[in-house]
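Pasting as-is:
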Amino acid sequence: MITVADVTQHYGIRPVLRHINLTIPDGSLAAVIGPNGMGKSTLLGVIAGVLTPQHGYIEIEGLRRKSSIDAELEIRRKVVYLPDRPWLPKNRTGREFLLGVGRLYDIPVERLIDHAERLLQLFELDGLGDSPIRTYSAGQQKKISLSSALVTEANVLLLDEPFSGGLDPSGILALKHVLRRLAHDGGTILMTTPVPELVDELADRLIILRDGQIAIEGTLHDLQRATECSGPLSEVLERLISPHTLENLDRYFEGRFR
């Protein structure tokens, strides 16, 4: 379980997150959604331990982040964090990268080699597995970064915009099925996305950020009931966080045809 307790995060004097309280149960597939600049990546970075909040704390499976060296090391064995634009060892091959990451998580060698091979096949990288990552396209680099998170076999996945970065339709399909299966098997997945269409059928828990605070959270049904909107997630979000978008569109086209 992930617990976010009264977290406030500032960049200089600008508050990005304000008194965030959140609980993600084990086995959840949760998505943080909101416009750009609302604090989605910052929230994930705080949970991942990359950022230290000015106020509040994070607990993962009952262990408080940065409370002690032992607690932090234990959390890091259980959690993998994949930022939107991760660093990649461009001169290493994809296979070398996956094997190196797996060793950091103490995956037994035979299982690691097999898992890396299956990931390369899953994301259609088996023909590139022994080529330097610098030769990969942007979408292929996204796939190898996702594979590096999955090869850890960590029980908690923190994924910042996993469906972005040029991921093609086959990659999106593969990732959706893998995440759904991992959550079904008891894993806990928290991801961010600015695009509701990618997660409305996938996530069992939706967290909507607006101005650095949680506007609402729950299932899609919960959000529909709260907004009195029976439409898809995109329409619910329009009412929650983008009520002026249609007005702005009307103004734009009125000015164009004057």
